Each structure stands twice: as C-alpha cells, then as structure tokens.
Amino acid sequence: MTTNVFLPGLLRSLSRAELITKMRETTTGSRDRWPLSSVIILATTLVFIAFLVKLISKTKKRRSGRGGSGDGYKLPPGSTGWPLVGDTFAWFGAVASSHPPRFVEQQAKRYGKIFSCSLLGKQAVVSVDPAFNRFVMQNEGKLFQSSYPKSFRDLVGKNGVITAQGEQQRKLHGIASNMMRLEKLKCHFLEDIQLVMLRSICDFPDNQVIVLQDVCRKVAINLMVNQLLGMTGELDIDNMARHFSDFVDGCLSLPINLPGFAYHTAMKARNNIVSKINETIAKIRRLQGSAEVGNGVLGRLLGEESLPDEAIADFIINLIFAGNETTAKTMLFAIYFLTKCPRALKELREEQEGLRGHNAAEAEMLTWQDYKAMPFTQCVIDETLRLGGIAIWLMREAKVDVAYQDYVIPKGCFVVPFLSAVHLDEDLYPGALDFNPWRWLNPDNQEKRNWRNSPFYAPFGGGARFCPGAELARLQIALFLHYFVTNYRWTQLKEDRMTFFPSARLVNGFQVRLNRRSQL
Ligand code: HEM
Ligand SMILES: *[C@@H]1O[C@H](CO)[C@@H](O)[C@H](O)[C@H]1NC(C)=O
Ligand SMILES: *[C@@H]1O[C@H](CO)[C@@H](O)[C@H](O)[C@H]1NC(C)=O
User: Fold this and answer.
1) pTM of the prediction?
2) Which of 150, 193, 147 is nearest to 5 (CA)?
3) Would you state the CATH architecture of domain 159-391+424-516?
C-alpha cells in the first residue's frame, strides 16, 4: 500500500505531513497526480488546526501529571516536550529523503539506541537497537500490539489480519501463512506468476520508453488479483485493479467520508471489491470440485479453511493490501540498484541465462529446480531489501506498562522499531550505503542473513506478525528479475532517487529505454 502498510498508525494520522510534502513536490515541479487545489489547502488548514488543538491538550495532560517521566515512569531519554513540531519535521524530512534513518541516527547518537521522541504531540519510544526491536516483535499481543487509526481499520476491514488482534489475529495469520508457505508455492504459484510476467512485461517493443515504476505497479496488482482471487481474464483483473487503486488512494487520504473526497471514493471502491469477491465466492461454490476453480488463494480458502463468509472478503483485501505495494516497489528498487551496479547486473544476468541453458529444450517456463538454483539472485533480493526495504519501521503501542532495562514504557505509548536504521548501521554492515549483494556470500554474514530470525536483518518483520507473504514475495521478485533481465537491456533516461514518504518510490518513476536482447 502506498506509504505502505507499515507506516500507517502514526503516519496516517499524520496525513498532514504528507500534504505538506505533496505541496512541496508540486511546487518544485516534480510530477504527481495531485493538483494543488483549493481543497488541499483547505484540508491542510483544517488538519493543522486539529493538530494544534491535539498538541495543546496533550501538553496540558502531561503537565498535569500521568504519563510524563518523573512520576514513576522512567522513559528512555530523548527530546520530549517542546519543541514538538521540530521533531516531527525532522522525522518526516528524513523519511522523505533517500536516507530515512538520518534523524533517528542523530537522536541515537545523542540519547542512546532507545530514545523518546515526540511526534505530533504523541509520545513515542523509538528504537534502533536490534535486541529491543526483536523484543518488541516477539511480544506482539502480549506487551505490545500494532496500532492503526480507526479510519484505516474501517477501510481495510475489521476482519482482516492486519488490524485484528489477539486470538483472531493468530487464527488469520495462521491461515495466511499456510496458504503461502514455501511448499505451496511450487504447485499453486510458480506457473501463474510466470504467466502474469509473460503477459505484462515480455512484449515491449524494441526502443520502447517505459516508466518502470508504473510497470511494476501493474505487475504487482496483476499478481495479487491473479493469485488471491484466482482471476485470469485480463479484463477482470484490470477492473479489479482499478477498484483497488481508488481504494488505496483513499487509505492514504484524510478520512472525510463525503462525496468528492478520496476517502469516500475508497469506501465505495471497497464495497465494489467486496461484492466482486462475493460473486467469486458464489462462482467457486458452483464450480466446486471442477478444475476451473484454479489456484487462487480464495478457492483454496473456501475448500480448506472455515472462515465465515463476511470475514473472507476482508481477509483477501488485507492480503492484497499488504502484498501489492511492497512487491511492486521491491521489484522496482532491485532494478534501480542493479542499474547503478553493472557488475551485479552482469552476474545476475549470467545466472539467469544459465538457467535457460539447462532446459532450453523444454517449455519456456522456469521450474522449481530453476528457482532453487539462483544463489546470486537471492543475494540481490536480500541486498535490495536491506537497502530499500519498504517496511522502514513498524508501529506498535504498549499494551501495558513495559519494563525494559532501566526504563518503563507506559501503557498506550507508541513504540517504533526502526528497522532500516539497523539495516543501514555501518557497524553491522560495513559500506552500509553501498549496494553490495556479494556481502551475503560472506560466511560471517550467514547468521545475520536469516531473515526469519535475525535481529540484524528483519525486512519481513518478526514474531506473531511476521510477513506471511515473504516466500511468495521472494518468488515473485526472482521471477520478475528473470524475465526482465533476460528480455531487455535498458538505459536510464532521467536521474532518480528513492524516497519513502509519503510512499516508498522513485521520485521520477525510473524512466528507461528498453532494448530487446534478441535484437542485439
Ligand atoms: C517484498 C515484499 C514484502 C515485504 C518487504 C513485506 C514486509 C512485511 C512486514 C515487515 C510485515 C510486518 C508488519 C508488522 O509487523 O507490523 C508484513 C506483514 C504482512 N505481510 Fe508482508 N511483505 C511483503 C510482501 C507480502 C506479500 C506478497 C503478501 C501477501 C500476498 C504479504 C502479506 C502480509 C500480511 C497479510 C501481513 C500482516 C501480518 C499480520 O499482521 O499478522 N506481504 N509484511
Ligand atoms: C498497488 O500499489 C500501487 C503503488 O505501487 C498503487 O498505486 C495501487 O493503487 C495499489 N493497488 C492496490 C490494489 O493496492
Ligand atoms: C458479501 O457477503 C457477505 C456475507 O455473505 C455479506 O455480509 C455482505 O453484505 C456482502 N457484501 C456485498 C457488498 O455484497
């Protein structure tokens, strides 16, 4: 999801900062769909007033006792209290730059790896400490829980895994993990992913200029609709993708449910999506047992699991939501990094073309064996996730007063494990800002590399909310890389850079001219 699923809590309640960035971008002439309309100005003003009111009431509360340090709670050190606005701007300024942890790194130098900070009037404990980050993830549901504003919960649906808590979250998470675990990929996803790739990225003519970001966006949503709903018709997929686009735009916007506002459009789009999913459920039930049901998660869900109908739509919407943008942007960033590192691109291409050699006689499709024979590609994916991991931080809230080391984090306090600060820590990763996929071949890094468990490398989170789509995402990205690098060479036409705010992306969308390899 834009700004993606992992920045929301805080961030989404902070859409004002987004508006500011948007406005800045518009005035500096970078392309964006948002016109600088009077609606935005009005909305910004409203939100800013709301923000000030909130700020003042928060400050009063803190003065009047509870929640501050000094009355039993010993919060980690940091700049609390005024000037709150300063922290917030520094924070989002850093996230909008190509180096999101800049601000937290500075704070960590001053106050230590676990520090307090005030973000738009709300107290937050921020951590760049691998052990504490892991502690927070491992105690999901016990000491901490993920936290989202109500408007966001209403949009993605209260029965989905992202916003569910406790028992219900564990059940839904279990189902999701089961549907997409490694052994299921071979029979249910391997071929379908490749069909989507063949259809969506393999037919560009020689010399075509593309905006790769838009292409990846299309690939990802096609993948999601195809794999989750089992839809294969191009028209069906495009239709669904359009509803989803409206939907996602709304999730990013101010929660004003009135005609003309993106949030309203999103709510309508949500209804369309739910009824489409309802139709698909009915159709699958009619076809029960016949081969036409296909490989979609939805079909298997109906057959294998017992979820009430009204929970199914939310479940699927949550998966699409969590998987779409993360996958799109990781594909994009991988190509971006490779373009800047020709030696890595060459090695990757050789590996991928080597696979072709093996089974040139067979169909064009890659096999599971092929997928298992891509060690360097796996390094490229890991390095892309380290440098350009979409989930730069996680959002949690303390469920109870939590004692950790000398500190007590009061119930209700925001807790932010800042993953990318760990991934970009020079002490853990020498040359941390360089794209160096070979680092993952180093035997010293093998333990670190274990992305399911490593405290030092957690691009898919951890604990009870560990990304259930991790293996699927990696397969999709590997197959994307295969089809892209074996079909094309490309020339970058415009300077570009990463930003992570308001969503992870390349500011100019990565325009490239493609040349078909067969023509060279
Ligand atoms: C490169 C791609 C991806 C990355 C980097 C990524 C990363 C993450 C991270 C860090 C979390 C944990 C969030 C938290 O703890 O608050 C997460 C959760 C989740 N991911 Fe992914 N993800 C990716 C792809 C996917 C895909 C393809 C799917 C599904 C089709 C998916 C489904 C989910 C779901 C459902 C959750 C929520 C789990 C829960 O809250 O219990 N993800 N992902
Ligand atoms: C998928 O992500 C793209 C951004 O990469 C966004 O524009 C689009 O609306 C998203 N669609 C869905 C269904 O999440
Ligand atoms: C979809 O089906 C569920 C469960 O049968 C029902 O509660 C819901 O109202 C339906 N929604 C739409 C939009 O058709």
Assistant:
1) 0.87
2) 147
3) Orthogonal Bundle (1.10)
